């Protein structure tokens, strides 16, 4: 078990995280927040690339800093921007990293074969990576993070720049890896984690806002989410009165999806909230969100 125990992080006087408390068991955790909320900072601390200003991170009861190499032996990490050699093939690159990680040759051979199959790159294993799409490169990234068969796999915004098909493929790979390890995946895109994460962690104002299942977080808006239609001339007034989650124009009318404390009009239709609704609701005033969508 991995435990983040009362962790705070400051860069100089600038506080990014304040008293973070988290526990991870095997399964997929989606770390979901707009850019700038501190996801990378938390992930870098989990990967021992940065250290908490206060608090500690424990793996099976021992501070990961003290575990040192023993911790890195069970850790797989895919950073936001991972460095690969464009002129290498994925196979050559993975052999190179396996050697750096101290895997013996026959173990490496077997493992690389399995991993290239897992990520669907066996057919192009000898092709130079400079010809690869963003999705293929990210799959090489997963393979490199999985070389040591880690108990903890951490991926920082792994789907950035991928198209929907590649995202879907990525999700399937992660699901297949989740059975007997902790997977922590950071993203600002709800659909990346909605269908695969056992738990979603949402951060706001330097703190953990929610750590719960998709269903339980979605229920935060239960009874408060509605749809209705109004005339075009009433649109501005309606927007001023309610928090709008979505709107569209159709047949000369405005259709709003919006949040209100309770049903105030017979014409309003209560709808089941999704994780995306809660995300938009929670980060409505968040300046960082505008740049991330
Ligand atoms: N080395 C640093 N020195 C000072 N401020 C930093 C440093 N690294 C990050 N920050 C600031 O800390 C805040 C959180 O950054 P962080 O990268 O952890 O956010 P994030 O949620 O991962 O966003 P992104 O996905 O854009 O990286 C941001 O305001 C960022 O500008």
From TrEMBL:
InterPro entries named among the record's database cross-references: AAA+_ATPase (IPR003593), ABC_transporter-like_ATP-bd (IPR003439), ABC_transporter-like_CS (IPR017871), P-loop_NTPase (IPR027417)
* Start and end residues of each ABC transporter domain: 2-230
**Family annotation (CDD domains):** ABC_drug_resistance_like
Show the Pfam families listed in the entry.
Answer: ABC_tran
The superkingdom of the source organism is: Bacteria
In terms of SMART domains, this protein maps to:
AAA
**Swiss-Prot/TrEMBL keywords:** ATP-binding, Nucleotide-binding, Transport
Q: Which PROSITE patterns match?
A: ABC_TRANSPORTER_1 (PS00211), ABC_TRANSPORTER_2 (PS50893)
MF annotations from Gene Ontology: ATP binding
Q: Family per UniProt?
A: Belongs to the ABC transporter superfamily.
Q: What is this protein called?
A: ABC transporter ATP-binding protein
Q: Which organism is it from?
A: Gracilibacillus xinjiangensis
């Amino acid at each position: 078990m991995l435990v983040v125990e009362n962790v705070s992080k400051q860069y100089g006087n600038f506080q990014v995280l304040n008293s973070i408390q988290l526990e991870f068991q095997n399964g997929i955790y989606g770390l979901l927040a707009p850019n700038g909320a501190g996801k990378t900072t938390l992930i870098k601390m989990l990967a021992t690339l940065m250290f908490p200003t206060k608090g500690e991170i424990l793996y099976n009861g021992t501070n990961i800093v003290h575990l040192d190499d023993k911790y890195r032996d069970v850790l797989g990490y895919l950073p936001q921007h991972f460095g690969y050699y464009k002129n290498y093939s994925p196979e050559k690159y993975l052999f190179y990293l396996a050697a750096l990680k101290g895997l013996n040759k026959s173990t490496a051979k077997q493992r690389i074969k399995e991993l290239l199959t897992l990520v669907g790159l066996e057919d192009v294993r000898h092709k130079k990576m400079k010809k690869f799409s963003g999705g293929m490169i990210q799959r090489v990234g997963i393979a490199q993070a999985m070389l040591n068969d880690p108990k903890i796999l951490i991926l920082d915004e792994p789907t950035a720049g991928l198209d929907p098909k590649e995202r879907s493929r990525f999700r399937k790979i992660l699901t297949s890896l989740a059975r007997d390890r902790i997977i922590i995946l950071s993203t600002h895109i709800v659909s990346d984690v909605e269908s695969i994460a056992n738990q979603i962690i949402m951060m706001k104002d330097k703190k953990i806002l929610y750590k719960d299942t998709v269903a339980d977080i979605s229920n935060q808006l239960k009874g408060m989410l509605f749809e209705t239609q109004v005339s075009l001339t009433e649109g501005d007034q309606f927007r001023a009165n309610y928090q709008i989650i979505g709107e569209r124009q159709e047949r000369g009318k405005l259709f709003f999806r919006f949040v209100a404390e309770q049903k105030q009009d017979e014409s309003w239709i209560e709808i089941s909230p999704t994780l995306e609704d809660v995300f938009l609701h929670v980060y409505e005033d968040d300046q960082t969100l505008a740049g991330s969508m």
